[in-house]
Design goal:
Elements lengths: L2 H8 L15 H11 L5 H10 L6 H20 L3
Bound molecules: zinc ion.
Protein name: JAZF1 isoform 3
Keywords: Metal-binding, Repeat, Zinc, Zinc-finger
Organism: Pan troglodytes
Length: 80
């Protein structure tokens, strides 16, 4: 890893779409990303699932697993 790559790896600056906000700790940065840059709209999430993304953020799985189970149950009982 080059010096620049290492520096960007260890800085707590948000890299989402030119956001650029800086946070004192990695935990603050992660919380910011989860709250501001990861979609939690059920319609968007469902669309993402249908597209079968090659990777999914672990925080997405942890946060929404309960909700997904609920929506799966609803989907199987409600005719569209
Ligand atoms: Zn950000």
């Amino acid at each position: 890893m080059t010096g620049i790559a290492a520096a960007s790896f260890f800085s707590n600056t948000c890299r989402f779409g030119g956001c650029g906000l800086h946070f004192p700790t990695l935990a603050d940065l992660i919380e910011h990303i989860e709250d501001n840059h990861i979609d939690t709209d059920p319609r968007v999430l469902e669309k993402q699932e249908l597209q079968q993304p090659t990777y999914v953020a672990l925080s997405y799985i942890n946060r929404d697993i309960g909700h997904q189970m609920e929506s799966r149950l609803n989907r199987s009982t409600v005719a569209s």
